[in-house]
Design goal:
Pfam families: HTH_31. This is Helix-turn-helix domain-containing protein. The protein is mainly α. The chain folds into 4 domains: about 60 residues, Orthogonal Bundle (434 Repressor (Amino-terminal Domain)); about 120 residues, no CATH class; about 100 residues; about 70 residues, no CATH class. The chain is built from 21 helices and no strands. The chain starts with a helix and ends with a helix. The N terminus is likely disordered.
Length: about 400
């Protein structure tokens, strides 16, 4: 049975379609999805996935939030998360002011280590712990960068802002994520670090992937220009990551040729980098990351059989960051569900929850998969019912 949130998305799509004076057939002709699927979404029989909703929004020329409505968390959950992130939001708003109070000027080496530790916490999906510690780190780095500016201090501050972006994205606060990336760009400019500035463009491209291929492609191109002359391992890894971002943008637009081009370019750079570049701005760029992005692109383009074959051949190394492992498990759950393997889908969701509960709980594809499993299960198992209650369905 569809949930209220799912049916309201369909209702919003129907309302906006009618405002645009389009029939269902007319709208279906503008999106890379079938008329049948559109009909089922509007009547609440099928879940409106993130990719489907983004395509409809793009076709109608409206912001995707017009169709999605409020975040997919309960009011209590949202209030708690907003309270957790309020100190970070305040830090980002007051970025150009000295921190309140008398804070000692700490050694830059110590601050760099603290900023790196926060990156590690996020990749271990200890999001609340990182969120609580981040404002103090930003304040100390701001004081250092403003009173005794060094390249290292500005670079570490840019890294801390990137951590703020990652936390905001994973907890479902896109507006805060946009501000964090603006601050990251500001600090990267002061550090004169082209690789950090390029990573910021990569993140921006992913954040605007739903707005259409043109904008995402422009952002990726801007990042590629920043590292075009870089021949170091760091520069090659960042350039490769930008190609992976471009593949995600192209997948959103259903451009299979562009996806194949960027995946091939990324794989060539991964071969040149050698191994997983976990030491390069926490990107973990390498052959496995390319494989995971190739599978993700197939999933986005709804090539579920292809994505399933790829998912079932992936063997994640033991050193894979928890955040990446959990994301893969959720994606694997999606393709198992879409290809009719419901028990396997639920097993992967349970594994993702066990590996990274905070990240998995708020990931939009978790909700999409749980909702789909509820729709297709005649008698939902207790594990699925518990999972639905856990994410707030």
């Amino acid at each position: 049975m569809p949930t209220p949130d799912d049916s309201s998305t369909g209702d919003r799509i129907k309302e906006q379609r009618k405002r645009a004076r389009l029939s269902q057939r007319g709208l279906a002709n503008r999106i890379p999805y079938s008329y049948s699927l559109l009909n089922q979404v509007e009547c609440g029989a099928r879940v409106a996935t993130a990719e489907f909703t983004a395509a409809v929004a793009d076709a109608l020329g409206i912001d995707v939030t017009v169709l999605t409505g409020p975040p997919h968390v309960s009011e209590t959950q949202h209030w708690r998360l907003a309270s957790l992130l309020h100190p970070i939001r305040e830090c980002l708003a007051l970025y150009d002011l000295d921190p309140d109070g008398h804070r000692p000027l700490r050694p830059v080496d110590e601050l760099v280590l603290r900023a790196d530790r926060l990156c590690q916490e996020v990749r271990a999906t200890r999001l609340r712990k990182a969120a609580c510690a981040l404002p103090g780190v930003i304040d100390d780095l701001t004081l250092s960068a403003r009173t005794a500016p060094t390249t290292e201090a500005w670079r570490a501050l840019a890294s801390a802002y990137r951590t703020a972006h990652d936390i905001a994205v994973k907890l479902g606060f896109p507006d805060l994520a946009v501000v964090a990336l603006d601050r990251m760009g500001w600090a990267a400019d002061h550090a004169s670090d082209p690789c950090l500035a390029a990573i910021r463009q990569y993140r921006r491209a992913l954040g605007h992937a739903e707005a259409g291929q043109d904008l995402g492609r422009r952002l990726v191109s801007a990042g590629q220009e920043l590292v075009a002359d870089q021949t170091t391992r760091e520069g090659l890894a960042v350039a490769g990551q930008l190609h992976l971002g471009a593949s995600a943008v192209a997948a959103r637009a259903g451009d299979r040729g562009a996806v194949a081009h960027h995946i091939a370019a990324a794989r060539e750079l991964a071969d040149r980098v050698g191994g997983e570049a976990r030491d390069v701005h926490w990107l973990s760029f390498g052959r496995m990351n390319v494989t995971l992005h190739e599978m993700g692109a197939a999933l986005t383009m709804r090539d579920f059989d292809v994505a399933l074959r790829q998912a079932r051949t992936v063997k994640l190394p033991p050193a894979t960051p928890t955040s990446r492992r959990a994301r893969f498990l959720v994606d694997h759950a999606v393709v198992e569900m879409e290809t009719g393997h419901l028990d396997a889908s639920l097993r992967h969701l349970v594994a993702a929850r066990r590996a990274a509960p905070e990240q998995t709980r708020y990931h939009p594809r978790t909700r999409e998969t749980v909702t789909g499993l509820l729709h297709t299960s005649r008698c939902p198992p207790d594990t699925l019912v518990a999972m639905a209650a856990w994410i707030g369905l």
